[in-house]
Amino acid sequence: MIIFALVVTTVLGFGCRGAGVDLGPVFPGLMWVSIYFVGLFGLGRSFSAEKSQDTLAGLRLVPADASFIFLAKLAANLIFLGLVEVVAVPLMFVMLGVPFRAPLGPFAAVVVLGTVGFCSVGTLLAALAAHTRAGEMLLPLLVFPIIVPAVIGAVQATSALLGGAGAGGWTRWVGLLAAYDVLFVVVPWLVFEYIIEP
Amino acid sequence: MNRADPAAVGAAVAGAAVIEAEGLVVSLGGRDILRGVSFTLAAGRTLAVLGPNGAGKTTLLKTLATLLTPAGGELRVFGADPRRQAAAIRRRVGYVGHQTFLYPQLDAWDNLLFWARAYELTHPERRVEEMLTLVGLDSYAREPVRQYSRGMQQRLTLARALLHEPGLLLLDEPHTGLDRQAAALLDRVVQRQRAGGGAAVLTSHDAGRAIALSDEVLVLDRGRVALQSPSAAITMEKIEALAAGGRTGDGDGGGQGGRRP
Asked: For residues B197-236, b (16+ Cβ closer than 10 Å) or e, as one string?
């Protein structure tokens, strides 16, 4: 997944350079496109372990709220994507020659918030897609329309931070991301039990 | 020792009703699969659910296991309504279905340990060891489940269902794929469940075997109860007639003469 992230970034970077595009302004978009493409690979496999022997139904037999399955899978997806980001994001800056001038704390917060929202929506929709035959093909079609606000917020906040904008330039985008995350963690947590019931 | 809370869901006192179904309706995909099924099952009793394909046997067991939600009628398992107290019921129910609910890439030990921890058992490792010994898989505990034969996987599935000492055992065609030794083990498990004051519901296409193991028989046909009878009173002619799509003409199962299983 790390290598895929770097390949996507490099290919997009070469494409932009070849077209004479200054990488600085487009880097936030490149970074998040890479992260979300890689994330989709992981999300598509979220429930693959439970498919072959209907283990998801077995998990529903456990005497606990079925939302725990969602929270556990969300945590796993966050950890995997988080590990990819820890390695791949710094390498993206190096490989594309983009200087890192953002304050580290806010930058890390934006990356975390952008990842949480994506993983939360993706985990819920992966559970939904797992019930269908063309689940892995269907997942991107389900995920991308819903994560548009998160993508906009993440790219704009990253762009403002890397561009040296003051707090006023990025805090509203962080607020958007935070609100998105709260909504899309709480709602899936509430409806997950109904999503996985046949 | 499992962590069931008898106060939360009524304890299965001998003779007390473990299952009470009245006009149970269950729908799947907009179609009514169970159409008003009524029966009761007391603690210490075993019920065989028979019927042709599509009669609703699996749907009934899944509903009792709280995997499906009733669309109508009343259902109480250990005195609890599955629409409101599903988690409490699940603590007391063990289910063996058509799928094993096992992770093929894990070995038997890790599979059972996962489920033992999910059920919050007090001594999960000890319980896993007991179950593996019970089902005769202790020598194969560290082999990946994907390498197991169908019979071995079914044994492990049975072990998984028994981990938390359920008061109600639900077995959906459990003899499928079992050799004689494993089938005999399953029969002993059902008998032990009954002797210990627990209840069991099993479905099977082997009507004779199911009836021999059970105290009561419920025959479903197209989602309705076609026959309900003590096992001792059932005849194979009635079962075969129902399997062929006919009805007995009477609502109870009392029969005179005919071939007994």
From this structure: bbbbbbbbebbebbbebbbbbbbbbebbbbbbbebeebbe
Residue of B18, B66, B68 lying closest to B201 (CA atoms): B18
Considering only CB atoms, A62 lies closest to which of B97, B104, B118, namely: B118
Judge: A58–B115 Cβ closer than 8 Å, yes or no: yes
CB count, 10 Å around CB of A90?
A: 11
Q: What is the Cα–Cα distance from B120 to B113, expressed in whole angstroms? A: 10
Partners of B115 on chain A (C-beta within 8 Å) are 58, 62
By DSSP bridging, strand B168-172 and strand B17-28 are unpaired
Q: Which residues of B touch A193 (CB under 8 A)?
A: none
Range of the domain at A78: 2-195
- Residue type at position A121: V
pLDDT in 10s for each residue of chain A, 198 residues: 778 877 877 787 777 777 777 778 888 998 998 898 889 888 888 888 887 788 888 898 998 888 889 999 999 999 999 999 999 999 889 888 888 888 899 999 999 999 999 999 999 999 888 877 777 778 888 888 999 999 999 999 999 999 887 778 888 999 999 999 999 999 998 988 888 877
Identify all chain B residues contacting A63, using CB atoms and an 8 Å cutoff. Answer: 87-88, 90-91, 119
Q: ipTM of this model?
A: 0.78
Shortest CA distance to A157 belongs to which of A97, A115, A96, A186? A115
DSSP annotation of B10: -
- Say if the Cβ atoms of B67 and A52 lie within 8 Å: no
Distance from CA of B219 to the nearest CA of A (A): 25
